[in-house]
Amino acid sequence: MRRSPLRGRIVATYLFKRILQAIFVVIVITLFVSYAVRLTGDPAVMMFAGGGGSMSEADLERVRAALGTDKPFYLQYFEFLKGLVTFDLGRSFAGGAPVSGLIAAAAPSTLKLAFVSMLVSIVMSIPLGIWAAVSRGKAADQMIRIFSLVGVSFPNFWLATMLVLLFSIALGLLPPSGMGSFESYIMPTLTMGIILTATNVRLVRTAMLETLQSQYVMVARAKGLSESKVLYKHALRNCAIPLITYFGLQFGGMLGGLVVIEKVFSWPGLGTLAFDAVNARDYPVLQAVITVLALLIVAVNLIVDIAYGLVDPRIRLE
Amino acid sequence: MTTQTPLLSVEDLTVAFGENRVVENLSFTVEAGQTVAVVGESGSGKSMTSLSIMRLTDNLGAHFKSGKIMFEGRDLAQATQKEMRSIRGNEIAMIFQEPMTSLNPVFTVGDQISEAILLHENVSRAVAEDKVRQLLEMVRLPDAANLMKRYPHQLSGGMRQRAMIAMALACRPKLLIADEPTTALDVTIQAQILTIMRDLQRELGMGMIFITHDMGVVAEMADHVVVMWKGRKVEEGPVREIFANPQHPYTRTLLSAVPRLGSMKGERLPKRRPLTVLEDGQPKVVGEERVQDTVRTDEPLLSVEDMLVRFDIRKNFFGKVTHRLSAVSKVSFDVYPGETLALVGESGSGKSTIGRTIQQLQRAQSGVIRVRGKSFADMSSAELFKMRQEVQYIFQDPFASLDPRKTVGFSIAEPIHTHGLIGDRKQVTKRVHELLERVGLPSAVASRYPHEFSGGQRQRICIARALASNPKLIIADEALSALDVSIQAQIINLFMDLQADLGLSYLFISHDLAVVEQMSHRVAVLYLGQIMEMGSRQQIFEQTSHPYTKRLLSAVPIADPAFDRAEIRIEGEIPNPVRRVGDEPAILGHDEISPGHFVARGA
Questions:
Q1: Over the stretch A264-303, which tens digit does the pLDDT of each residue have?
Q2: Which one, B66, B239, B460, B471, has the greatest CB density within 10 A?
Q3: Fold match between B8-77+84-247 and B302-600?
Q4: What global pTM score does this model have?
């Protein structure tokens, strides 16, 4: 077709817009976070507070000069941006390790945890949601809705603690903390998975109920297709748009929730890194973590947009 | 053609949701090669009957209270869902009403058709695809190979319904159930689909159950007719018998309510006709016959001159418009006080756009709209607001156009408050009650909510709301299309009574030519945003001059099985009105071939 050269250009424009958007998001978020964290305390004071020794104003001044925190905020922020462009994120205030090394070590752990949790919730919520929709108003539907309500009401740290009490302390089946073997993944991802599933199940149920009313579902049944083909092939694909949208949004929210989960299970990820960096007022590490998280969210949004086109031919890029 | 045992035999079937019986003690048979039409109005149980034969009622939560569905020696009423799956789509196939929603939007047309073949026949994908190509050619879809790779949204309604037929016929079923297969289509497309279905049935020797409310379609398609009313069969017989000599009072009322094209031959003016209604189980003729001589031709109430409406459809990278839809191209007409002007045409003809532009729901790019000689452009915003009071709109869907959370009394009173017509609260209530009685509803219903009313009652409420602001002109946009024929006949009379009493003018937008013939003084035939022919009722229907009008009239199904149908083969789709910028449609001039009768030149 004649449209194809145009298509390439449209895709290029689209990606260009996306990159601009990512830059904008990173600047706004890091600016806000960097400024806010500087209002909460002085890293120089924090360093000495740990050691318990006495400090003079001159000592503090020296430390501030060494860290660079004596300069005005806009200059510090400018330094950070320059670091981003040149891929030199500086060194941690606490310990002096290169920030990029810390990120590189922590990011994969978080990503693994996030994706496995997401997967657990999708694998649980889709069949449960469909089951609830198909048996609308019957016992199964009621049970699933009660589960969903209970799941939404659980605080994540409480659920995590209960799981540890049950599986590690009482039964001794699973390691209580750390990341390593397959077993160590079970509890953190289950905690996240259950909490995500609680909301997802309702979404799947609602989307499915609407789709099941469609005439094409009746047509699929009239063809003689089995019920599982009707549900999982014809109906589910048509629910995909609201589900993908929501899963994408949820990913961002989940990264926040992971800070708590990582802390409870001593998971060596970005959440733990960010948590410690806030406590130590470790600006370079905190700024770097936030930047990585912001970029992750932008990337997930991009994936969501591409997924729309894959599942629904009506919104493929013209 | 007849065999010893019928192909399908429904015996004493009762279908119920809980205790609510939707089909009661129904029996009928279908022979191979025979077309049985099941006719009835909404709620008659005709669709439930077809879904019961497919056992798709199970998914809706219905169950059988009694009866057998015998198909080739098996009782489908007792079959398991697993057994049914090998019959569905294979031996019994079904076509549904809405071609727009019956194809799954996320799969290609080819995949959806080959799915049934792969399921029921032990063939390879390549063989199945080959079959799909043949099927698409069989339903006369051009360029089948390319079409298979397309998605439903890239096809027009008529093309989708043909793809749907191809899907239903994929495994050469012995019985085809068609549930209102052409109701949502334009008449010219309907004529094509009906021809295809008739030809294919003859070719494949299928039995066919044709479910419809359209007596014209019944007359064209059926061998045998089953009339259903409130879940029961009230009458059945050969099609000519049913039309010539209906026995049951309900059948007689139904047939008398059907508007017939050509029934007003020789009449200069539209005519209000008495209604046949069922009273205590007997048909009774009520109401008077009256010639609708209401037009006052001194000064036009509404005058439209060279209206031009275009919509920007596609933009390029820099936001420059590259494709435009020419919805209305230089259309001019007048509407006189007390007159009904009908705008007729197929989808995309621009008839609704004209109505919406006059109601100021959207803007025209150019042209002049005058009300009583004063142009919209010269009006102050207060005067334009007053126009919204004097010109009222009635929509097609009476379900969607009333707020479900407000009482109908509130909805009717709203325009009175908006335009500050009556200040006193008590007087407003009194007026609302008057209006409800005027449209034939008891005043006590003012405190009820829309869901408590039937479709016909809701349309009456919409009319009462339109009347609330004392309009001079009512734009009725397919206001009768969603109604059953008996209700439709009542609403037509209501429209005509209101015109006689209040001197209202109507701009009557419709695709139903038989209704238009009965109730309009003048008619404008639109095609792709331009008037092809305009003139009095008689000029359009009896001295038809433009080939497009002729084509349109020939496509209307005639509700008379004895009518000698000349085999008019209508081919082709309604063209796409979207064009590249710069490639503007040619504006056709008009010739006045006799006083008041305008015909487009050329093309």
A1: 888 899 988 988 888 888 888 888 888 888 888 888 888 8
A2: B460
A3: yes
A4: 0.82
**Which chain B residues are within 8 Å of A222, Cβ to Cβ?**
54, 56, 88-89, 93-94, 96
Q: Is B106 on the interface with A (CB under 8 A)?
A: yes
pLDDT in tens, B333-392: 999 999 999 999 888 888 989 999 998 888 899 999 999 989 998 999 999 998 889 999
The first and second tokens of residue A50, run together, are: 């740990």
Q: In terms of CA atoms, which chain A residue is nearest residue B165?
A: A219
Class at the top of the CATH hierarchy for domain B8-77+84-247: alpha beta
Domain membership flag for residue A193 = yes
DSSP state of B365: S
CATH label of the domain that carries residue A220: 1.10.3720.10
Do B394 and B469 contact (CB within 8 A), yes or no?
no
Residue B4 φ then ψ, to 5°? -65, -55
Q: Which of A227, A313, A318 sits opposite B106 (nearest CB)?
A: A313
Selection from B486, B498, B515, B426 nearest residue B462 by Cα:
B498
Structure tokens at B490: 């009542």
Number of residues that make up chain B: 603
Size of interface A-B (CB pairs under 8 A): 79
Which residues in B lie closer than 8 A to residue A215 (C-beta atoms)?
Answer: 96-98, 101-102
**What does residue B6 show for φ and ψ, rounded to 5 degrees?**
-65, 160
Say if A311 is an interface residue toward chain B (CB within 8 Å).
Answer: yes
> Strand B175-179 vs strand B92-95: parallel, antiparallel, or unpaired?
parallel
CATH topology of domain B302-600: Rossmann fold (3.40.50)
Kindly report, residue by residue over A206-258, the tens digit of the pLDDT: 999 999 988 899 999 999 999 999 999 999 999 988 899 898 888 888 887 88
Distance CA B578, CA B583 (A): 10
Q: Is residue B2 scored above 50 in pLDDT?
A: no
Mutate to test the interface with B, among A211, A213, A219, A308 (most CBs of B within 10 A): A219
The amino acid at residue B256 is S
Does residue A259 register a pLDDT over 90?
no
Among A224, A313, A318, select the one facing B88 at the smallest CB separation. A224
